[in-house]
Amino acid sequence: MTDVRQIRVISRKSQLAMQQTRWVIDAVQALRPDWRFEIVPIVTQGDRIQNVPLSEVGGKGLFVTEVEQALLRGDGDFTVHSLKDVPAEVAPGLVLAGFPAREEPRDALISRNGLPLSELPTGARIGTSSLRRAAQLLAARPDLAIVPIRGNIDTRLRKLETDDLDAIVLAAAGLRRMGWGGRITELLALDVCLPAVGQGILGIACRADDESLLDALAELTDADTKAAAQAERALLARLEGGCQVPIAGYAEKRDGRLWVRGLVASPDGATVIRAEAVGEDAAAVGNEAADRLLAQGAAQVIGTVAAKAPPLS
Ligand SMILES: NCc1[nH]cc(CCC(=O)O)c1CC(=O)O
Q: Quick check: CB of 171 below 6 Å from ligand 1?
């Protein structure tokens, strides 16, 4: 017999956030038929600032901090984060307790004329505000013109036409969760565009002392996804990267062991440092991959980028 609870779920109002929230509620409901759920919508500062590239507004976890404060105040019981938007450290008193099976981790190219990356014309205009994507695209194709675009997924898809772009790059996971996977021209190979740490993973956060909720979230957790999340976030934490630095990391299970790949690049793609590590313990493997990046000078690349970034305000 489980306890009967009325669970309040804090969610940003974006279509993607609401979609992900409803999906997780359905999954928890299936495990706890007696529980009742209610969505508490929240508008964050990050949702209000729409026209400035995220890399310029600064502040780690722009969308996440206010949601964490709301959870700590007790405005709601859990929230569903896109893990890649969650800074390396979560707020004291909260835990990331639920990791449903990962959606597609790769970045997707959506091109106007259906051409894959390798066939785009010289000087093609590619829309992305992600320094990580820009750096890797330029490393593969230095001729490309990177055009900053921001906004929700549907806004960015529209800008493909209105901003006269040849292609845009988005996380395949977000597109698929919205039911728009059919728009994808090409999934970019992991060795062409290594994803952001946590891309495609949902991380469900709740208060660290909420025992019955912790139990339910543990039941919907996929062990391989959780291990990948831990390894990738250990790598990120050791590199101390904010969204101002092109950092990528991806972990997957191979033959029972965890394989982590990491990348640090200069924004122009001229310098790209790669490293990998294999092992059993998720955090240890992530740390080892980070150390191998640092041994190749990643700190200098990160330091150079951070020095050029505008001050956080
Ligand atoms: N930075 C915004 C963001 N946060 C999570 C996703 C997509 C879903 C995911 O990666 O889990 C996106 C959109 C994108 O990067 O294209």
A: yes
